[in-house]
Specification:
alpha/beta; 3 domains; single chain
Length: 237
């Protein structure tokens, strides 16, 4: 189940940062790419993916052609991030918000009620992400256990990641992988993603049979799916 993106998570190559008059972008060669692609990512910014033999002039041409769309997309992402982040003194956690309180000498983030105690200074961001990863394993694991028990199925392992292009995935052997950033979304969105992957334990593809199964298991799936499609790219700290 992918984050809106044009880039395969399996592509490998380095990036070369470049700058236009209005924004910077990076160029990355992907061995399996067949055409030039441009993506705007809330974490990694504007990226041009090139096939192995394409010239960097092709990247510049693509950026020039798509510049109006890129600028609109960057503005939309900034607006969505501001809306979800609030005034910067708190962070979202499913249907709640936690007030951030920095403490000198602290090295790990810790939740106390509706407050998240964090290190002060530059280490706060990494500590907060590590805390979310730990919380995600507990939140997602509980929901995954409940959903598979209700469906009468079983999964293999559970991994918590920060995938660039996926919210979650289900391997053929039942191994589950979920993006910790789902905890920044409303609870109904996380529940939808969990059920989406649990249905993949029975139907691996997105055939009509899969969507019928999801409809049976979670009739209200369309609204959270639409929310994630419209707001998912802004789920960053």
């Amino acid at each position: 189940m992918g984050v809106p993106s044009l880039l395969s998570a399996s592509s490998q190559a380095g990036t070369v940062p470049l700058v236009t008059a209005h924004f910077s972008y990076s160029v990355r060669r992907a061995p399996r790419a067949r055409r030039v692609r441009v993506r705007v990512d809330p974490v990694h910014g504007v990226e041009v993916v090139l096939p192995p033999r394409a010239s960097e002039r092709a990247a510049a041409a693509a950026v020039a052609e798509l510049s109006p769309w890129i600028e609109r997309r960057l503005a939309d992402l900034a607006s969505a991030r501001d809306r979800l982040r609030g005034d910067g003194t708190s962070v979202p956690y499913l249907d709640e918000r936690m007030t951030l309180v920095a403490e000198h000498g602290r090295i790990r983030a810790h939740r106390a009620g509706d407050t998240l105690l964090v290190p002060d200074g530059a280490q706060a961001g990494a500590a907060i992400e590590r805390w979310y990863r730990r919380a995600a394993r507990e939140e997602i694991g509980a929901r995954l256990d409940a959903a598979t028990a209700a469906a009468g199925t079983r999964y293999g392992t559970l991994a918590i990641r920060n995938q660039r292009t996926r919210w979650a995935s289900c391997a053929r052997d039942g191994a589950m992988s979920f993006n910790w950033r789902l905890l920044l979304a409303p609870e109904r969105v996380l529940q939808y993603v969990v059920w989406h992957e649990v249905c993949h334990l029975e139907v691996a593809d997105h055939s009509p049979r899969f969507w019928a199964l999801l409809e049976e298991r979670l009739p209200a799936w369309r609204e959270p799916a639409a929310w994630l499609r419209d707001n998912g790219s802004a789920l960053v700290l």
